[in-house]
Specification:
alpha+beta; Aminopeptidase; 2 domains; seven-stranded mixed β-sheet; three-stranded antiparallel β-sheet; 19 helices
Amino acid sequence: MGVTSVSSPTVVPTPARRSARIKLRRGIGLTLMNLVVPGSAEIAHGNRTAGRIAVRVWGICVLAALLLAVALLVAHGPVISLYTNPVTLTVLSWLVPVLGLGWALLVADAWRIATPAGMTVPGRIISGALALALVLGIGGTAYASHGFFGAQSSLIGDVFTGGGEAETEAGRYNILLLGGDAGADRVGLRPDSITVASISVKTGRTVLFSLPRNMQRVPFPTDSPLYELYPNGYYCPEKDLADLCMLNGIYTEAMNHKKLFKGVKYPGVEATKGAVEETLGLKINYWAMIDLQGFEKLIDALGGITLDIGKKVPIGSVHGVKGVYGWIKPGKAVHLDGFHALWFARSREYSTDYERMQRQKCVMNAMVQQLDPMTVLTNFQQIAEASGKVVATDLPADQISTMLDLAVKVKSKPMSSVSFTPPLIKPANPNFKKIKAKVAAAIIKSEAKDEPKPTPSESAAGETSGQTSEPAAETAADAAPAPDTAETAAATASQPKESASATPSEDAAATTEADDLGEVCSVA
């Protein structure tokens, strides 16, 4: 007798249960539709007027983003200028939150039109939790964007105050870079790093001119308020004051005489700038001063720098509480974060001020070579926050893109370097005619590298006529006599001889001038 098998009866869901599942899928679908294309759920539900308005606004935003992306690739300068304009950032600080709030409301509305009342309890919980998470995410981001753009607008307005000279001189931008240290053991703020970057607008070819912080007898231009106090240069014949009357002391001296600088916001920098202009014979377009803490944060915001380091550099000071407590070891492609880059640039133990000046140029070169506009855009918030530590700059916000474009050109050319240190000059009694002549010669030599090379016949003709390949200014620099005035002669007689400890090492002396900064330090 056969056995008849009985199959289990198929459980058919009730119409109500099927309807609840359909409404759950529909609710999740409509919510995700408004997440991807705001307003599409309203159109699908029949509310075409509200839906079309939302979709059009969304389309305009997407189109604007695409156009900006293309413009950023083709001509990023105008895009950066537009973005860094405080007015643009202020508008964005209100427009983005409003659009974000509207987007969040549309997502919530998508869940509403899905009739959650017809879902099961678990279905309402699942769809409601999804909608709530999306609304909170979009709304929270929109709210945060208000503070984000507002903070950037304030930082740019506070840091890039303007006041510099946009018009170039002989086709070059001359930018004064000051590194200041206002530590607790210092009398006021003193810029210990004083460098001028002279940049060709056409080619980006750059020459870095470094002045030692201990340079004395620095002249002031006749229109400087300090000229009347120091008509023969910044110099204190009293031995106990000699260390104060140096180039890096001008900042503090000007701050002590603020009343002489009527209407000037930064007397210390303004006085230093005038003295540097008079010393080098260059007109400064812009200046920027950054303190040590700001420098560290700025390097971190840029993602660090990478250098080929040939000599270990100590971290700390033998005179400090911790002493020397670490070392930056030599090697190829050494990546330095802000902390280590700062010590690489500022450390003066077991070295000279002049060697430190070369290391500072290494860091500047690395920052330029490894910086690009995309890095600035992708890390703009961190860079803006770090820039808040900049004491001051007279670069206006509308020139940020110009400087970034110029930085791209600078990256494509090796940098030249001139450090006005021994044996080229004596910081205690510099030959200022020789300094100016060296500056002119270095610029001529730098620009000549981008000029068409003469043909053999032209070279032969030049030699026949007695022409030389070296710039005339360089020859004049070597032959320039020391200033011969009664005041200088008297001051020289009273000036103590420079001690042997102030003499730089042979390596520092050999790198006083370099056609390529890569000869001094390598940027990995």
